[in-house]
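Bump. Still looking for Dipeptidase structure tokens.
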Amino acid sequence: MKKLLLPFLLLAALKLSAQDVEKIHQKAILVDTHNDIISNELITGNDAGKLQTTGNFDLVRAKTGGLDVQVFSIWCGDQYGNGTAYAYANREIDSLQALVRRNPDKMVWVTNSRDLKKAVKQHKLATMIGVEGGHMIEDRLDYVDSLVKRGMCYLTLTWNNSTSWATSARDETLHGDTLKHKGLTELGKQIVRKLNDDGVMIDLSHPGEQTFKDVMAITTKPVIASHSCVYALNPHRRNLKDYQLKAIADNGGVVFLNFYSGFIDSTYEGKHAAFMARHKPQFDSLRVIYKDYDLASIRLNELNKAEADQLRPPLSMLIKHIDYMVKMMGADHVGIGSDFDGAESYPLGLDSVTDYSKITAELFKIGYSKKDVEKILGGNFIRVLKANKGK
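Sorry for the wait, here they are.
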């Protein structure tokens, strides 16, 4: 009987994906925990409130894609430090708040799960901020307080650059022998405890393994990785190893999947390096124009789209990362953190925020239940946010 039933269940899943996926997708609460459009807007002057022909996000396309909650990344590179990084973070927050004020019918500022759900019911984009890089607090606890008041829902303890109190995955991997310390210092432990007390989610997407271990030893709240992938499928220093995935699940936290091709596909970086070498003069010119490496890379790919598309992995490769996480951690601990507008390449078919439903369709095709899909799309974020905020 079971052998006869299995083909029927598979057929039902396929039928659902063909006829009803979009309806289910639009009805579910969809949360994306990482988007870099705000730092790009400060450079380009584009208005994300209007339909754009470049980049991955604007409010028009977000509505089409069924996006209900966006955590916007507040980010600056390591060229900013003490005396400049905190000010730049506030400039980005000001820019995002101006976008909200210009579009009161489309988006609303929220800081907790209660207001998030209210925004969803009003059919407005629930707008939140995550601060990507501990260097933006400039070693000052009062700056943590200020960013909390401005709405910071998570702090990524490091970006690629280490701070005086926490070491990054990049530095631990590439410069481990020359670091003055690895992991958290006493100040770092103090900051982690303060984030717990303030209801700010601790983001472990960029920190190194020793920092990760130190955090997990002392945190009293569920942690997140706001935009990460699976090390076992692509051994990149930014991806999470199995023990890290298990530790986050045991902690009650959530890993939000990054869409970047370089984290999804182990062959991408080599192919992209050759692409960059072929287009070096053009890239150098774009870098002069934009004064930002990542944005210049994004524009280079847009200008050479047909060639750049040949480097992109298939969508199935991204689905393998989600499925691996779910099998390792359980469906309660996986979510979406696209890194849209923060990288030059994503899997084929994922061109913008209009394309999230393609992931929903693929999950149904491989047998995921409606309940588990809804958890991955947004339910898990709401749970971990409430666990940290208390509301």
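The domain at 27-265+314-389 is CATH 3.20.20.140 (TIM Barrel).

Edit: fixed formatting.
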